[in-house]
Amino acid sequence: MAGGFTDKAAQGSLTITRRTANLENTFSAQLHTPLLPDDTLVVGQLQKFFMMGEVSRPGPYPYEDMLTANKAISLGGGFTEKADKQGLKVTRVTDAGAQTLQLSLDDLILPNDILAVATQNHKFYISGEVRNPGAYPYVENISIQKALTLAGGVTEKAERGTFQVLRQVNGHDETVAVGLDSLVQLEDLIVVAEGQRVFVSGEVKAPGRYLYEKGMTVRKAISLAGGWTEKAERGIIKVTRVTDGVAQPIDIALDAPALPDDFIVVPQGRRFYVNGEVKKPGDFVYERGLTLHMAITMAGGFTEKASKKPKVLRSVNGKEQSFEFSLDAPILPDDIIVVSQRFF
After folding, report:
1. Of 161, 183, 187, which is closest to residue 174 (Cα–Cα)?
2. Using the 8-state DSSP alphabet, how is residue 56 labeled?
3. Which contiguous run of DSSP H or E holds residue 84?
4. Are 264 and 201 spatial neighbours (Cβ–Cβ below 8 Å)?
5. Tens-digit pLDDT string for the chain (344 aa)
6. CA–CA distance, 302 with 304 (Å, rounded to integer)
7. Half-sphere exposure of residue 33, counting CA atoms within 13 Å on the CB side?
8. What one-character DSSP code corresponds to residue 220?
9. What string of DSSP letters covers 261-293?
């Protein structure tokens, strides 16, 4: 009859003031309580509490009896990712004035309380070879891998697999080796070091520095550099290696292990030459164990007019000499093989 409740009404807070024999009596009532003439019905104003800070939906909320801080935060949509779940404070007006109190999740909220959830200031730090080094909010059960993802991932120069963490242990800073699945701890400093390198130069398609991997061979390093060029020596490779602080050049096989900071040089292969009655005369890369027959095969083989007794021009003690070898004879670098035309 009075138009219904307003938005501010506490529908469960109804009181009746009634006069009986010149006495005034006030008591609680329900919606089904009968009224008498001259009764005064009072609808109480809705009690509220307020939430602010790192909750999903800050603002005013209806108060209910036995409301805990945990239930209040649930009404507000729960904590945000930045929330400090231990940093709950309430501002409360008492007879002594306004007070700010620390709360736990199980403590009760009172009408008109202002519940504040603090922003998390717990952090961890990442430096070194990541795309976005800096400080990041700490959350429980975050792995090293997830932390590196937050920092934009590692750079191309980064060491992979094992990382160093500077961590407080019993009040002292200690350096701890961790893997990608290890958990980050509060105030950790994750250091992503620059990876060890090998250097590849000479007759490769993409000379440069490359990330060293455990178990890497010289052949694998050359493969990372794009492989050999057409002019490359494919047998023994030259490597400059630091041993006991001294750089030493050594010859090394393709399947030998490479070491960090090796300087691998692929030299230009030595050549031999085939002229005359062959199908593809020209110069060719010399390989160890090459025979005269194999050399002529590389030049496309004899033509129909070829003499089957080729001559080899070879420098001996600085003088060029001519030799006639069998087809099974080995050839040497810089040999000139001449296949003459037969006359019958």
Report:
1. 187
2. S
3. strand 83-94
4. yes
5. 999 988 778 777 899 999 888 889 999 999 999 999 989 999 988 888 999 999 999 999 988 889 999 999 999 999 998 888 888 999 998 877 888 999 999 999 999 899 999 887 788 999 999 999 998 888 889 999 999 999 999 988 888 777 899 998 887 889 998 989 999 998 899 999 888 889 999 999 999 988 888 889 999 999 999 999 988 877 778 899 988 888 899 988 889 999 998 999 998 888 899 999 999 999 888 888 899 999 999 999 999 999 888 999 999 998 999 999 999 999 999 999 999 998 76
6. 7
7. 18
8. H
9. T-EEEEPBPPEEEEEESBSS-EEEE--TT-BHH
Strands 263-266 and 197-202: parallel
Phi–psi pair at 227, nearest 5 degrees: 85, 180
Residue pair 331/323 in contact by the 8 Å Cβ criterion: no
Residues present in the chain in total: 344
Q: Alpha-carbon Rg of the chain, whole angstroms? A: 44
Contact 193, 129 (CB under 8 A): yes
Query: β-strands 83-94, 97-103: how paired?
Result: antiparallel
pTM: predicted TM-score of the whole model, two decimal places: 0.45
Tally helices (H) and strands (E) across the chain: 4, 23
Pair of tokens at residue 243: 């041993």
173 neighbors 166 (Cβ within 8 angstroms): yes
Alpha carbon separation from 237 to 110, 197, 207, 209, 259 (Å, rounded):
81, 18, 15, 17, 14
Phi, psi of 161 (to 5 degrees): 100, -60
Residue identified by tokens 């600085």 is 318
Q: Whole-angstrom Cα distance, residue 236 to residue 334?
A: 18
Note the Cα 333 to chain centre separation in Å. Answer: 50
Three-state DSSP at 66 gives coil
Tracing tokens 């309430």 back to the chain, one arrives at 90
